[in-house]
Each structure stands twice: as C-alpha cells, then as structure tokens.
Specification:
Distance between the termini of chain A: 37 Å
Oligomer: heterodimer
Distance between the termini of chain B: 36 Å
Number of strands of chain B: 14
Number of domains of chain B: 2
Largest interface: A-B, 36 and 38 residues
CATH class of the largest domain in chain B: Alpha Beta
Low-confidence stretches of chain A: none
Largest sheet of chain A: none
Order of helices and strands of chain B: EEEHEEHEHHHEHEHEEHEHEEHEH
Number of strands of chain A: 0
CATH superfamily of the largest domain in chain B: P-loop containing nucleotide triphosphate hydrolases
Number of helices of chain A: 11
Order of helices and strands of chain A: HHHHHHHHHHH
Strand content of chain A: under 5%
Structural class of chain A: mainly alpha
Radius of gyration of chain A: 20 Å
Number of helices of chain B: 11
Shape of chain B: elongated
CATH topology of the largest domain in chain B: Rossmann fold
Shape of chain A: elongated
Mean pLDDT of chain B: 84
Strand content of chain B: 25-35%
Chain lengths: 265, 334
C-alpha cells in the first residue's frame, strides 16, 4: 500500500456544510455537461418561443413605446429562467427514484446539502441559459438601451426569482412518484403564471376579469422590472415587488421542501 | 470498539400505516471482525434492517447501536463508522468511477488530496483502473458492484453493510466479490451481509440469522443450523409424481420433520442414514413403487430454510416492499 496524504481535515461544521453543497452541485453539473444534448433540450424551447412570437404572432401584437422584439425578449428571458427552475423537480425526482438520495443519508454529510446542491446547480444552469438566450435575442434584433449595469441587475433579479421558485419545484420533485410525473405536475403550475402575464402581451389587452391577476402576479412584476431595467424605461416599484414576491415565496416554499425531504428520504 | 460492532434490541418497523410489519422484534449481536449473515427470502425484512442500522430509516420501536453509537440519537457518529453497498447500487451513472469515489470521500469530509489518492488506490485494488475515467453507464453489473463497494470503503469504515452484494451477478463476479469481502474481513472489518443465497451465507458468514416475515426464525453458525436438521438428507427420485405422492405417507414415520416433495423427488432429513434408507426401500418395494434414483447427502442451508419456513428461499414472491409501500418502486439494478 502506498502512503496516502492525511485523511483528516479540520473544518468547522458550517464550512463542511458549504463544502457538501458544492460537492453536490458539482456532481449535478458534471452530469449536465456530460450529456450535452440535455443543454440543447433546455434552450430549444425558448428559441422556438422567440421565433414564434418574433416572426409569427409578433406582428399582430400592438405594443406602446418600443418595438415588439424589445418588449418580447426580456419576457422570454423571465419565462426561460422560470422554466429552467423546473429542472429542480426533475433532478430531485430522479435521484429519489434511483435510490441515490437514500444512500446519501447514510453518509455523514450535511443533511440539506442534497436540496441546496440541486438548487445551486440549477442556478448555474440558469446563468448559462440566460447567456445563450440573450445571444439569441440579439440575433433577432433585440436592442436593450438601459446600459450594462441595469442589464446585469435585471439578470440578477431573474436569477433570484428562479432560485426562489426552485425551492417550490424541489417540493414537487420530492412529492412526485417519478421524474415524468414531476414534469407533468409542474406544467399546470407554471402555465397560468407564464401566459396570463405581461411576458408576451400588454396586460391592458386582456379581458377585465383577468387583468387584476395578470397585473399583480409575480411573473408579470418580474417581467415589468426586467423590461424596465433592460430598456431603461420607468418601471415603478416593480423591482421591489418582484423581489418581495421571490423572498416571500422562498420563505414559504423552502420550509415545505425541507419538511418533505425529511419525510421522504 | 465495543464488544459487538452492531447490537440491536427488539427492532420493529411498520409500514403503510401499520398494515405491514416489515420487522417484528428483531434483535442481533454482531461480533466485531467477522462476517455476520442476515439470510432470508425477498420481503423477509433484511433490507429494512440494513436501512435502519445505517440510519436511513428510523425504527418504529426498539433500539440499536452501531460502533457503540445510538442509531437514533447519534446518527452522524454512526455514519462516520459505516460503509454501505449492495444491490441498489449507489453509484451515479453520469459520473466516472473516479468521480463517484471522490464524491463519497468528500461527503465523508475527508481531505481532498487524500480522497483522490485513495480513489486511485481503490480503483487499482478493485481492478477498475482502466475504467476509472469512464462513466458508470459503460460499466458491467460486476464492475458497478465493485465500484459501489470501493466507494463505500473510501473512508475505511470499520463496519460495512452489504445488502445483497451479489444479487444478479454472474458466477465469476460473485466469486470475485466474495474474495474481496474475505480480504476485508482479514483486515479487521466487520461485515453485516444480507443475502438470499444460502451458498453465499454458508461460504462467508461465521454467524447467521435467518429472517422470515420480519422475524428471526433461527440463528447460529451454519454448522449449528445444519445440525438442527438431523445428520443426513435422503433424496428419493420416482418415475412419476404420482408415485412420489403415494410414497410420501408410507415414509412419514421415518423422519421427525415433514418430507419435502418437489415434483418427482422426495427429500427427508433422517438421523441414521443407512438404516433409514434400507427401511425406506423395503416400504417402497412392498407398495410396488419403482425408484429411479436415490441419494444420501449432507444437508445444505437450503434444506435448513425449507425445514424452518416450510417454503423454499427462492420461490417466494415479495409481498412486503423494501421501501415506501405502494409509492415508488425502486429500480432493480442488474
């Protein structure tokens, strides 16, 4: 037997917990990059939305104050990061189904590193998607005029929003019987949020009974804030409202997910 | 290290709101430094016992210590002293062999340089060096089990839980894995092994517990269990199952335990082989039944199992799920 370095590491419990989260996140990202086709699948849907609304429906949608493509792309980015956080549900459901989560519980690792590692790797994945779809936006004529700093602030806001949503999808992934069901369950949850919103059209074009929901729901607030930042337009309190939604959501959803994790795993 | 590596007292585990008693009062004492076998058919509660002892699942009632630590009150101490491997391979299919061991090592809170050196050494020891940087998807069943075991050993745990480590493996892979397990025990590791293969328990385990429907139905060394059977098994083959059926009542008084009829073969355990054989032949001959074959042999653990449970170890369906009943069928890895 060759001589090995010392196995002992002396770190505080907190440092180990962070190390465990990063180990888990790294594991998820390795798997992601090992199957490049999964990245293609992640971006193909938003690209189709861009083409559909930019070139098929866009001409019929009246917008005030800017071109439709400038209205559309910030909305598509919000939608894409939101759909990206669905990956949390699928990833956790798969790990659970394969018995991996159960085996992690026999290791002396921080208990919540499985959940936190998954949401962190999904956050990284969303950064990647955001960059790609931004590029696609520029290709189809998107011209933001709000400046680089405001653009990055908008991206940060979307990532915070999607990260907070991830915890809700973590709950779905842990409650679903398998990965396919997890994906199916998330669809009716995000569909009304994505489409009864200010992502594709002005809320003022919707019927009166739908407007209160469409105006105030978190996706619309986030889309308004992101659009305002990217285009350098006034957007009122929407940034703060969007942040409040995100933080409020994570305060409710994270304990739910953690509680579910303790029960199932 | 305390006298017993694992001590369990009256462990009960109930699933599905009390409808399924997967474990019904199981107590064990596993001496340090040897292989202890937990033998039983599917659904007997073996895997549930391992899940409880490895802190994955909490017992409904009862208590246990592993390496001297309470499984309910000190789970993290327990986790620092155990390795777990087996049938439901832990390995992550999208990672390479090296990455899998590295991940488990880091999650055991070992120093990174140590983990990487140790991973290479384990891959070498387990004959996986050539496949170290391939994803697990490309591994054969035997390679996956070896890798799973290698990952479980990265922190050099004094106690190893092996849950059906050779189920679904080809004979050569089984032999390889048995060799590895024997080598580990020589090095001082305590192994708690579950198996439904009686030859595996016979070959590896010094002491055995036989589980059926969540209860211990027998325990001792394999020699002791065989001794409970009587000295010899008399196997009589008939030309038809009708003949075998007719012969069965004629021979009933020759054995203390009921004879086992399997098609045209009648098997019974007897104390005095030659004398009983002569007697059996006279009775069969007098009834005008023809024999097609006859054998006297030492009892196997299969005989012990049939004797204890009234059924064969292999032909039991699994009415009791190993995990969350009715919810999430665990993928059976081949």
């Amino acid at each position: 037997m060759s001589t090995l370095p010392s196995p002992v590491s002396t770190h505080s419990a907190l440092r180990w917990a962070i190390s465990d989260v990063l180990t888990m996140a790294r594991r998820n990202l390795l798997a992601l990059f090992r199957v490049p086709v999964s990245i293609v699948f992640m971006i193909i849907q938003p690209i189709m939305f861009v083409i559909l609304f930019r070139y098929v429906f866009g001409g019929a949608i009246p917008i005030v104050g800017t071109s439709y493509v400038n209205y559309l792309i910030p909305g598509i980015l919000v939608q894409t990061t939101m759909f990206g956080s669905v990956g949390t549900a699928i990833g956790l459901a798969e790990d659970l189904q394969k018995g991996l989560i159960e085996r992690f519980r026999a290791l002396p690792m921080a208990r919540l590193a499985v959940l936190a590692g998954r949401t962190v790797s999904d956050l990284f994945r969303n950064v990647l998607i955001l960059a790609i779809i931004t590029g696609v936006g520029f290709l189809v004529g998107f011209r933001p005029t709000g400046g680089v700093v405001a653009y990055l602030q908008a991206c940060l806001l979307m990532l915070v929003f999607a990260y907070c949503l991830s915890w809700g999808f973590a709950y779905v992934g842990l409650a679903a019987p398998n990965a396919e069901a997890a994906q199916a369950i998330t669809f009716p949850l995000i569909f009304p949020l994505a489409f009864a919103s200010a992502i594709f059209v002005l809320v003022s074009s919707m019927p009166g009974w739908l407007r209160p929901f469409a105006n105030n729901q978190p996706v619309s607030q986030t889309a308004d804030a992101v659009r305002g930042l990217m285009l350098g337009q006034p957007h009122g309190q929407s940034t703060w409202i969007a942040l409040a939604w995100a933080i409020g959501a994570v305060c409710v959803l994270a304990p739910l997910a953690v509680n579910k994790y303790r029960k199932v795993a | 290290m305390p006298e017993f590596a694992v001590e369990a007292h009256d462990i009960v585990r109930v699933f599905a709101k009390g409808e399924v008693r997967a474990l019904d009062g199981v107590s064990l004492e596993v001496p340090a430094g040897q292989v202890f076998g937990l033998l039983g058919p599917n659904g007997s509660g073996k895997t549930t016992m391992v899940r409880i002892l490895s802190t994955i699942l909490s017992p409904t009632s009862g208590s246990a210590t592993v390496a001297g630590f309470d499984i309910v009150k000190q789970p993290n101490q327990v986790r620092r002293h155990i390795g777990l491997a087996g049938q439901n391979s832990t390995v992550d299919e999208n990672l390479t062999g090296f990455e899998n061991i590295r991940m488990v090592g880091l999650l055991n809170h070992l120093n990174k340089d140590f983990v990487e050196a140790k991973a290479n050494q384990l891959l070498d020891d387990f004959n996986l060096s050539d496949a170290a940087h391939r994803t697990i998807k490309t591994y054969s069943g035997g390679m996956r089990r070896r890798l799973d075991l290698a990952a479980a050993l990265v922190a050099s745990p004094p106690i190893l839980f092996l849950d059906e480590p050779t189920t679904g493996l080809d004979p050569q892979s089984r032999q390889d894995l048995w060799g590895i397990i024997e080598h580990l025990v020589e090095g001082g590791t305590t192994v708690l092994l579950t198996t439904q293969y009686l030859d595996e328990a016979d070959r590896l385990a010094k002491q055995l517990v036989v589980l059926d429907h969540g209860k211990i139905i027998a325990q001792g060394t394999s020699a002791e269990l065989k001794k409970q059977m009587g000295a010899t098994v008399l196997a009589l083959s008939f030309t038809s199952s009708d003949d075998a059926l007719r012969a069965q009542p004629l021979l009933a008084s020759l054995s203390a335990t009921p004879a086992n009829l399997d098609g045209t073969v009648l098997e019974m355990t007897v104390d005095n082989g030659p004398a009983v054989t002569a007697d059996a032949l006279r009775r069969i001959d007098a009834a005008g039944i023809t024999l097609s074959g006859l054998a006297l042999r030492e009892p196997s653990l299969d005989d012990v199992f049939i004797n204890l449970t009234g059924h064969k170890a292999e032909d039991v369906d699994a009415p009791v799920p190993t995990g969350r009943p009715g919810r999430r069928p665990r993928k059976a890895n081949a």
